[in-house]
Amino acid sequence: MLRSVIDRCEKGVGQETPEVPRSFGILGQQLEHQGNYEDAKVMYQRVVEGYQRLLGPEHPHTLSWLSDLSRLLETQKEYEKALPLYQKAFSGLQKVLGPDHPETLKTYNIYSALLQKLKDVAPDLV
User: Fold this and answer.
1) Are 23 and 44 in contact (CB under 8 A)?
2) Could you tell me the residue range of the domain that residue 15 belongs to?
3) What is the pLDDT along the chain (126 residues), one digit of tens a residue?
4) Which residues are CB-neighbours of 42 under 8 A, at least 6 positions away?
5) Is pTM beyond 0.90 here?
């Protein structure tokens, strides 16, 4: 049903509204919760691309979804892809929202935990 809503939204208002990437994000979250990580990853990438185009690469929505995409890549053990995206999301959020903002801290904590984990699992990546 959500896919149908997205199709109608894209046809009705086009790609030039933040509602379309937001809808991709909702669908991506549902797919992730169902364990369909590959399709969820595609949706998260579409969210990030849409927000980058509409709001800019340093907008908090763009950076927050970039962090979510990183987390999903980490879940799939795609550490080499996740690390630079976490770094980009964290540094962008720190710059835009500040170091003490909850979204910045959340991204930092997840990113730090991954770095710690990789010291044991894949030290060549850290």
Assistant:
1) no
2) 2-125
3) 666 666 666 666 555 678 788 888 999 999 999 999 999 999 999 999 999 999 999 999 999 999 999 999 999 999 999 999 999 999 999 999 999 999 999 999 999 999 998 888 878 877
4) 28
5) no
Between CA 25 and CA 119 the distance in angstroms is: 31
Residue that is written with structure tokens 């691309």 in the block: 49
Structure-block tokens of residue 68: 């979510």
Domain count for the chain = 1
Contacts made by residues 115-119, CB under 8 angstroms, sequence distance 24+: 115/83, 118/79, 118/83
Give me the CATH number covering residue 87. 1.25.40.10
